[in-house]
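Dear colleague,

Following up on Tuesday's group meeting, I ran the structure prediction for the two-component complex that the binding team flagged. I've pasted the input sequences exactly as they went in, so you can double-check that nothing got truncated or mislabelled along the way. The structure tokens for the whole assembly follow below. Feel free to forward this to whoever is handling the docking comparison.

Inputs:
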Amino acid sequence: QQQVKQSPQSLIVQKGGISIINCAYENTAFDYFPWYQQFPGKGPALLIAIRPDVSEKKEGRFTISFNKSAKQFSLHIMDSQPGDSATYFCAASGSFGNEKLTFGTGTRLTIIP
Amino acid sequence: EAQVTQNPRYLITVTGKKLTVTCSQNMNHEYMSWYRQDPGLGLRQIYYSMNVEVTDKGDVPEGYKVSRKEKRNFPLILESPSPNQTSLYFCASSWTSGRETQYFGPGTRLLVL
């Protein structure tokens, strides 16, 4: 199975709150899990990525939590700001095939004042 | 400035009229790929190229062609566009594979009437 399932489809969070986006995968051969951020009118850009040898990776206000046994990973945005309003894509890849990235369906995040 | 460029950014065409969307990167990347982004479906890979003269199908290749005659360029060709190819298209590049940071272009919005 190559799918990556992402939820929710859209999310509204108050400024200063925590935004949480979840992803699940089936293929246990996946070993690279990035998150991409996309602003309107722009291409996606890498936000943060994790490999399964760690359960958490933090970069500033952004944290990836990874649960290998459950085959799930999530993005947490602490102290969410209006500038974080964007579409977020999770993705997964493994050392098989063309090592391509399989993307989730995206989450449109809106931070309200 | 390191970047991926795409042209045109917007295109309206009619069914059956051949078109080409150009993609160029100035980072000397070996791996390039094309994605289409549709609401609720995320980013899906159309074609990819691991190096000059090496191309292969992604998840949704039907109706598309590509070529990689030079390392920096990776054009996407729609020989007979149909309305179901109306979408937002992104070119991306990385050093050697999909398991690395993908650098995306700004996107090409295509409408096929």
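The interface with chain A takes residues 4, 33, 35, 40-45, 48, 50, 56, 58-59, 90, 92, 97-99, 101-102, 104-107 of chain B (CB under 8 Å).

Cheers,
M.
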